[in-house]
Design goal:
Blueprint: H1 2-15, E1 24-27, H2 33-44, E2 48-52, H3 57-71, E3 75-78, H4 85-99, E4 104-107, H5 122-150, E5 153-158, H6 171-191, E6 196-203, H7 209-222, H8 226-234, H9 246-257, E7 268-271
Parallel strand pairs: 1-2, 1-4, 2-3, 4-5, 5-6, 6-7
Helix pairs in contact: 2-3, 2-9, 4-5, 5-6, 7-8
Bound molecules: nicotinamide-adenine-dinucleotide.
Nicotinamide-adenine-dinucleotide (NAD) is lined by residues 29-35, 52-55, 81-83, 108-111, 131-132, 158, 160, 203, 205-206, 208-211.
């Protein structure tokens, strides 16, 4: 009886993440915000992590060293530009060489621009579509052969509540985020028999540099003060009236990587304080 209880306990432990120790993850756009939060959570669960994104090189080196020291896992960095398919292939190759595999891919890098559709700059549209949508396609196609060969893989696309509903003045972002849900579902269907899952996480507003930057842009587009934008636009969308945190999103990503989540695939999972329930 006690043996059975002990076995049950260890089944629960491994279902909830103990099986992640030693796995390797690539997280795009992880020098900041949500990607960095996910990198912390995956490293805390024992995974090796490859960071990616822009920023001051000295600050990035400090983050890499910090993660390695806090969690005792191997940590690397790729400066690949997610708007460049060759860079993306190089990033996946670097991770495969450094870690021997890519078990988890988190497509998170993203940018935003807030402006009415009739004056929306064409170069911004192209950049948002390539970084927020096409980059996930390029990275996904590069990791799938290895995941299929090993019979395990987790592809997590950081979409948005804007993958499920629209807001004005965000035509490129809303289009890319709706698109990534379509990519997620298709990849889920193509990989379902190979131990691979593909899911989209759909956060509401998280107070990261991406959101901080759009507060003045939204104020201008809507003729509001910045305080009004936070209270009447951003948090107004979320019935909890609170920002979602990067730690909450990191915990969801860890769960999606676990054995317990193996039957969750092709899903678009809201983590948005009730926004899309309205
Ligand atoms: P952020 O600006 O804090 O971080 C974006 C990251 O992407 C940074 O590391 C940046 O260097 C990187 N990046 C940008 N362009 C890149 C490129 N061309 N190549 C490589 N890396 C690049 O933003 P965030 O809020 O953490 O956003 C991360 C993701 O979460 C995005 O996909 C965003 O759309 C999504 N999201 C954010 C929120 C929010 O409220 N912050 C809500 C829903 C979804």
């Amino acid at each position: 009886m006690l043996d059975k209880l002990a076995n049950d306990r260890s089944d629960h432990a491994s279902a909830l993440g103990a099986d992640l120790v030693g796995k390797a993850a690539v997280i795009t756009g992880s020098t900041s915000g949500i990607g960095l939060g996910i990198a912390h959570a995956l490293a805390a669960s024992g995974m090796k992590v490859l960071l990616n994104g822009f920023g001051e090189r000295s600050e990035i080196d400090r983050t890499v060293a910090e993660l390695a020291e806090i969690y005792g896992v191997a940590v690397g960095y790729s400066g690949a530009d997610m708007s460049k398919p060759d860079d993306i292939a190089g990033m996946v190759q670097l991770a495969q060489e450094k870690f021997g595999a890519v078990d988890v891919l988190v497509n998170n890098a993203g940018i935003q621009h807030v402006e009415a559709v009739e004056t929306f700059p064409i170069e911004k549209w192209n950049a948002i579509l390539s970084i927020n949508l096409s980059a996930a396609f390029h990275a996904t196609r590069a990791v799938i052969p290895g995941m299929k060969a090993r019979g395990y893989g987790r592809i997590i696309n950081v979409a948005s509540a804007h993958a499920l509903v629209a807001s004005p003045f965000k035509s490129a972002y809303v289009s890319a985020k709706h698109g990534i849900v379509g990519l997620t579902k298709t990849v889920a269907l193509e990989t379902a028999e190979h131990g691979i899952t593909a899911n989209a996480i759909c956060p509401g507003y998280v107070l990261t540099p991406l959101v901080e930057k759009q507060i003045p842009e939204t104020a201008k587009a809507r003729g509001l003060t910045e305080e009004q934008v936070i209270r009447d636009v951003l948090l107004h969308a979320q019935p909890t009236r609170q920002f979602v945190t990067t730690e909450e999103i990191g915990a969801l990503a860890v769960f999606l990587c676990s054995r317990a989540a193996r039957s969750i695939t092709g899903a678009a999972i809201p983590i948005e304080g009730g926004w899309t329930a309205q």
